[in-house]
């Protein structure tokens, strides 16, 4: 008897997948893809219904900006639609050079390196830096791309309690000395909108000779007086910090990047498998990414408008009795806890014309299901007023 016998486990894969999906459905965690029938904006058509979008990470509304589209179209006409190879073969055009120089200036670093996505940036950077015998300290609420990247290494990975700098210090005080230490944190946490305690972590890393890496995907373009990110917010000028970010949120494009010293970038180029073995980004994307950086570097009006809307929503939620975090950010969660109740609120808002997605495990911890409201500069004050009215109506109905 062997595996070629057709009577052995004929449906093992189908059974495995069906049982897994049934279990997900029973827990209220089943997901389906929603299809948008129009371009990204604050009003989108889904399933033949127009709703106000409160779930996009396009914080400044640049994804559909005419200037971005013109830059992209011009690059297509000049360069074509694809790159044809990985960057280390023949896909590394002068558009990459221009973009990476712009990123380095924007992040105030010596150099920068662009990746196909933010996910691949974290995967490439972390798996290149950390090796067997090293220690990685990672915040409990770090993005899944960081968690997965840590698993790619042979380093010891310790998840520290969320934003608990005392734990980080105590652990380094009492642990056996590893070869190298990498401390990794989101700059702005994607589900809560909280800012990480970067200055305190930086101080600890200096004390113990550790390397600090900040994934500033949700801070880049939004946070700080010039929108340069979390380090800008804290007025922290530390060239040794590894800054990872993405173009796919406030910058309105696609791709990830790492910014740091010339030495760091040379090291990553020669070690990051997600650079070495990935086809280079198309010219249209590189050009629009560069335009996104130019826009937010020269024009703060979109960021100013965004924060006016953020403060309006925060004030309204506080008046309804919901807690908000101290620092205004475009990510504003309403923590509900129970999965079924979270789904119920999201469905009610959908019926009222708002798309506010329910966030459930495994994206958040069990018991912490929430509505994740994210704002765009393209939203209006009327949008905010109507959303607050609908939230108030749901809970008044429930009482």
Plain-language structure description:
The protein folds into 2 domains: 30-59 and 300-398, Aspartate Aminotransferase, domain 1; 64-298, Aspartate Aminotransferase, domain 2 (3-Layer(aba) Sandwich). It contains 15 helices and 13 strands. It has helices at 12-26, 66-79, 87-91, 94-107, 118-129, 144-152, 165-174, 198-208, 230-233, 262-269, 273-276, 283-298, 301-319, 339-351, 381-398, and strands at residues 43-46, 49-53, 111-115, 135-139, 156-160, 181-186, 211-215, 242-246, 256-260, 331-337, 354-355, 358-359, 369-374. The strands form 3 sheets. It has a 7-stranded mixed β-sheet with strand order 3-9-8-7-6-4-5, with helices on both faces. It has a 3-stranded mixed β-sheet with strand order 1-2-11. 44% of the residues are buried.
- Uncertain regions spanning at least 5 consecutive residues: none
**CATH arch. level architecture of the largest domain:** 3-Layer(aba) Sandwich
Give the topology string: H per helix, E per strand: HEEHHHEHEHEHEHEHEEHHHHEHEEEH
The CATH topology assignment of the largest domain is Aspartate Aminotransferase, domain 2
Number of strands: 13
How many angstroms separate the termini? 64 Å
Question: Share of helix among residues?
Answer: 40-55%
Number of domains: 2
Q: Strand pairing plus helix content: what structural class?
A: alpha/beta
């Amino acid at each position: 008897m062997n595996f070629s016998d057709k009577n052995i486990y004929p449906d093992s894969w189908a059974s495995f997948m069906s049982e897994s999906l049934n279990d997900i459905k029973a827990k209220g965690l089943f997901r389906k893809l929603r299809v948008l029938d129009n371009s990204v904006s604050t009003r989108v058509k889904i399933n033949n219904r127009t709703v106000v979008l409160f779930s996009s990470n396009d914080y400044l509304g640049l994804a559909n900006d005419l200037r971005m589209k013109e830059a992209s179209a011009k690059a297509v006409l000049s360069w074509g639609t694809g790159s044809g190879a990985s960057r280390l073969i023949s896909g590394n055009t002068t558009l990459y050079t221009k973009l990476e120089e712009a990123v380095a200036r924007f992040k105030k670093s010596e150099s920068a390196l662009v990746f196909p996505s933010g996910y691949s940036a974290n995967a490439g950077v972390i798996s290149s830096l950390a090796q067997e015998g090293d220690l990685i300290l990672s915040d409990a609420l770090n993005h899944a791309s960081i968690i997965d990247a840590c698993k790619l290494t042979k380093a010891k990975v310790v998840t520290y309690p969320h934003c608990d700098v005392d734990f980080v210090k105590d652990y380094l005080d009492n642990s056996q000395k590893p070869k190298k230490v990498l401390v990794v944190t989101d700059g702005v946490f994607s589900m809560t909108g909280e800012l990480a305690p970067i200055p305190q972590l930086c101080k600890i890393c200096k004390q113990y000779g550790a390397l600090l890496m900040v994934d500033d995907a949700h801070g880049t373009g939004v946070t700080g007086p010039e929108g340069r990110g979390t380090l800008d917010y804290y007025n922290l000028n530390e060239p040794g910090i590894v800054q990872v970010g993405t173009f796919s949120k406030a910058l309105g494009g696609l791709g990830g990047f790492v910014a740091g010293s010339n030495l760091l970038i040379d090291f990553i180029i020669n070690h990051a498998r997600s650079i070495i073995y990935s086809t280079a980004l198309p010219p249209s994307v590189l050009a629009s990414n560069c335009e996104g950086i130019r826009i937010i570097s020269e024009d703060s009006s979109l960021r100013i408008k965004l924060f006016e809307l953020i403060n309006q929503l925060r004030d309204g939620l506080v008046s309804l009795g919901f807690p908000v975090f101290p620092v205004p950010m475009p990510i504003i969660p309403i923590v509900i806890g129970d999965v079924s109740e979270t789904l119920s609120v999201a469905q009610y808002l959908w019926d009222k014309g708002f798309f506010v997605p329910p966030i459930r495990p495994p994206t958040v911890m069990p018991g912490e299901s929430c509505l994740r409201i994210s704002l765009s500069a393209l939203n209006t004050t009327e949008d905010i007023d109507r959303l607050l009215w609908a939230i108030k109506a749901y809970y008044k109905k429930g009482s």
